[in-house]
Amino acid sequence: MTVQSASERPRFDLGSVAYGGDYNPEQWPEEIWPQDVALMREAGVNLVSLGIFSWARLEPRPGEYDFGWLDRIIGLLHEAGIRIDLATPTAAPPAWFQRANPHVRPVTVSGTVLGYGARQTYCPSSPEYAGAAARITTELARRYAGHPAVVLWHIHNEYGCHTSRCYCEQSVSAFRAWLADRYRTVEALNAAWGTAFWGQLYADFDEVDVPREAPAAANPSQQVDFRRFSSDALLECYRRERDIVRAADPSVPITTNFMAGLTDNLDLWQWAEEVDVVANDHYLTAAQKDNHINLSLSADLTRSLAGGRPWLLMEHSTSAVNWQGHNIAKRPGELARNSLAHLARGADGIMFFQWRASRNGVEKFHSAMVPHAGTDTRLWREVVALGARLGKLEEVCGTRVEAKAAIVWDWESRWNLDCGNKPSTDLGFRERLDAFYACLWHAGLTVDFVHPGADLSGYRLVLAPSMYVTSAAWAENLRGWVRSGGTLVSSYFTGIVDQNGAVHLGGYPGALRDILGVRTEEFLPLLPGQRVKLASEDPGIPAGSASRWAEDLRLDGAAAVLRHSEGPGAGRPAVTRHGFGEGTAWYLATAPDQSTLDAVLRAACADAGLALPVGRPAGVECVRRVGAGGDEFDFLINHTDQDVVVPLGGEQVTVPAGRVRVVVSTR
Question: Which residues are catalytic?
């Protein structure tokens, strides 16, 4: 199958910022529908996602279709000038399908068969599910292809959110076929998985099982391959429905909603190549301190998946969600602040789950654009105000965010780190990555995320805080980039294994030793809560402290910037700097305290020739979008409880507490 290039794919362009949300009219009496449409017009809604969980209404019995109700609501929306993101409803198979195919229910790693009564109750490798999903998709696409209100097709919903991996017998058979296609011979599989360890040698692919609960930990290479297979199995489900829709309606763009930054079950670098426009769902974690930084990370990651092109925020919440331990309502102004932060970082659409708060079901206490209390509410007034504001920002559409720095993000490293049995339980994909990102966020530096094999020539600074998996090709990519003048910052437990999970021999950090100019003989992880002092050997980097990690690190061309002055690594370098070709490589063999990490990353920015903003108040986010003609849109987002003054282009701009200013400069 040939994947279309970005320039060949149908483009999504409403001519203004898309604004709206999931609309589920089947939950409400039909006399409510005209009221909903009138309220949508009042709020400035111009796009709704329709039909996402409607399979049972559209096909109440096998092969019997009822599109009358959908025709009527599409007609009402079209008459009001509201466009439609029409979904295939395959995330919620009907009860009749479950009754006819009980073996299709997903099975957990411990062997529990999951029951019906939620959503995504299916095995992704099931032929029965594939056939039923293809039939409803075919009927839907045939009926609404070419409809002037349908400007976007939405395949399924949140792939991998609930049914990410299935351990049933159908999945076992599909996994074996996937392995045979990947490795061709069982001897190649044995070599890749290192099955000589613990006597796990296979003589035939039919002997291979999925990585179930076992007396001891399952082979980590087997676990990671099963993660790869599971991502591919879901991608095949998406491709099947997408290709049916494409054949019927080739000029309308097609998408599905990712959950970048929230779940880790799909290799979204691979998935992003298969959609016409990248769409993402994001929800704040209410208990997380500075959760707006995680929002920015998710938006930057989504923009990066889109290759820098504009993307859609397909779902977020107007206020509280329903599924966290403490579902905290958003404070006045937070709805707009969150929405405009996504817009600032490249979104051309701001959508919510959902339009009207449900009266029944699991998500009845999830906030919505129309709350249970109705329109005489602060929430509704903020929804209307946001719609009016977005309506005045149509010139932002199509502009791009520019970044001169990047962070390596690799789902395979994340999956490998998840397998456990590492030198410390403190090792995780997100911990160092989030710490590095937060430092750059506070410094005012906008970043992209990149695949380790990506073209890095457009960046001056690249951070690799969690690149545990490093193939020879990826190492060479970094090597050539640093040699030609790039500045690399790498953290501990990076460069350790290849894509099969085999350790690079000769000393750590494995594949990156020559670039970093260091060699580690042994890891010296610290105990929980243990903090050790760091002594400075560079006048620009003050002494500090560190936690989590130390190494028996030897210099092999690099210079020590900080050393451990106590603990198991006492006397050993903790942070190093190495000139490599025309570039520079930093290595952090520990987890410095926040101020020390900030100082190190600022020094790396100086090496890269990146000027950081001066005089920006703490807690204020400044992001710029630039148009093809040079027009600039500066988003100044105040996350504090005080009015602030932000220097911008030689002027002083006041941003009220908790509010957002958008400053437009026309060239």
Answer: 158, 315
